[in-house]
Specification:
single chain, alpha/beta, D-Maltodextrin-Binding Protein, domain 2, 2 domains, six-stranded mixed β-sheet, 10 helices, about 30% helix, globular, SBP_3_CS, Polar amino acid transport system substrate-binding protein, Solute-binding_3/MltF_N
Length: about 300
Amino acid sequence: MSVRSGARGYALRAFCVLAGGALALSGCTTNTEDNAPAVEKVQVAKADAIAAKLPDKIKQSGKLVVGVNIPYQPNEYKDGSGKIIGYDVDLMDAVASTLGVRAEYQESDFEKIIPAIQAGTYDVGMSSMTDTKEREATVDFVDYFSAGIQWAQQKGKPVDPNNACGKRVAVQRTTIEETDDVPNKSKACEAAGKPKIEVVAFDEQSAAATALVLGQVDAMSADSPVTAYAIKQNQDKIEPAGPLFESQPYGWPVPKGAPLASVLQEAVQHLIDSGDYRKIAENWGVQDGAITKATINGAVG
């Protein structure tokens, strides 16, 4: 994750006590998505010519083992019954159907997904993960979406992302927002003789959004679809802060040099060409980040 970065109805997850000693949140909400929207599942037929190219191990098992970190609304999260749903899930399910197998989702800490792929525990990762040059050094990415960074602020309390010196900014731990976006902006503040930005990192994105809703931070930095979703669900509390910037691709990581990459790429392109990809994106309201060409290792910069 991220940029972990693409919208629905949810009850924000909050932690009454957060590990790492950051914040004690009052008014904790539920840990389920009881208001998750009913999103139509796009039915996809098997494409025999593409499915024939799957590695034998996956063909024989009949499943694609997918490592996923949740919650990251609207891309991957659990509904009120505990089922993993979201835009990423529907797209991966469609890819699996195209290949004549099923996707088996296994939950993981975000930072453990790539090592688990390298170890062969998962066939592929799926967690709104930004394809970066640094990550490409260890795994290959099948790029399927374009997302940027979008900040949010409390309603009526303006924060300029490019001049947030002295502000407290919530991020999800290990995302690009924590490792690059906010730290780089903070360094610029310090270089100008201004107070640094205090990065307030949370293990889960929903807790970062909750902190902003409750006014315990001044702003939040997250992937554009995620921020848009949080704002949609809390329109009376939070709003966009500044424009979207630094658009980059989301990718599914697979082992370096694995033949699975080209198969997944071909499956995504098949869904793009058939119109099913666009339909899935529209069903989740994330069509602004839809792509027209699936690529491998398309990191920007």
